[in-house]
Amino acid sequence: MHRAHRRRQGFTLVEVLVALVIMAVIAAMGWQGVAGMSRAREIGGAASDRTLRLQAVVGQWETDLSQVYDSPPALQMPGLGFDGSSLRLLRRSEGGVQVVVWSLREGVWRRWAGPVARSQSDLAQAWAVSSALQGTEAGQLQLFDGIKGWQVYFWRGQGWSNAQSSGDIEVSAQVKPPSPPASGASAPDQGASAPAAPVSRTLLPSGVRLQLDMPEGVLLRDVQLGPQQP
Q1: Are residues 222 and 187 in contact, defined by beta-carbon separation less than 8 angstroms?
Q2: Given its phi and psi angles, is residue 10 left (phi above 0), alpha (psi -120 to 50 degrees) or beta?
């Protein structure tokens, strides 16, 4: 009779506390699992977005290189050049030529594109602006961050070489127009030309190799430069 009476009294306080502790532990373990799954999903989503953004940026890099303009010697502007921190190129655009600069500043890969130049003077002005960029100019786009460093190589001859090393030089002759005759002197023979002045320029490489050092690893991308359009 005494035992049956005790069963009808229910759980003791100690039993209730033990049950609550067990339920709390199970709930905490379940919450940690849900939180871990949520963090894994966020990390995976961020990595996927970063990969897609990198693919888009590298696609723009390849597009710029595919449209490199091999400038004539008279312009005295190389179509493509790399100084260790910036790659500057002349890019064919609809109606003219653009100066484009890819640079790395404070771990951020940036791209600047000047206005489309339709005259030699406009192109010279854009070229001068591109040589003194500070990173805050209009049109300066911050495309990708988290880059530790980068290097660019040019394919010349039979192998890759540092883009900062000297390239193949082409020397051509440019005929100067005849000078006007001095006062009292006879006019020069129109059939004769003035002595030719040699003009040199650096030839475009056959290909460009990009090396990006990132936390995820090293990215290598090779781009072959196509033939120049007439």
Answers
A1: no
A2: left
Give the amino acid at 117.
A
Do residues 173 and 197 lie in contact, with contact meaning Cβ atoms separated by under 8 Å? yes
- Sign, CA dihedral 152-155-159-165, equals negative
Q: What is the DSSP letter of 190?
A: T
Neighbours of 205 (CB within 10 A): 22
Whole-angstrom distance, CA of residue 39 vs CA of residue 182: 84
pLDDT of residue 89: 95
pLDDT tens digit string along 94-135?
889 999 999 999 999 999 999 999 999 999 999 999 988 887
Query: What pLDDT score was predicted for residue 168?
Result: 55
User: Which sign, positive or negative, has the C-alpha torsion 17, 22, 24, 25?
Assistant: positive
Its pTM stands at 0.70
For the chain, the structural domain boundaries read 2-48, 49-224
C-alpha 155, offset from chain centre: 19
Q: Hunting for tokens 């690893």 — which residue is that?
A: 217
Return the beta strands (E) in the chain as ranges. 80-82, 86-93, 96-105, 108-113, 140-144, 149-156, 159-162, 169-175, 196-202, 207-214, 217-224
Structural tokens at position 140:
């300066």
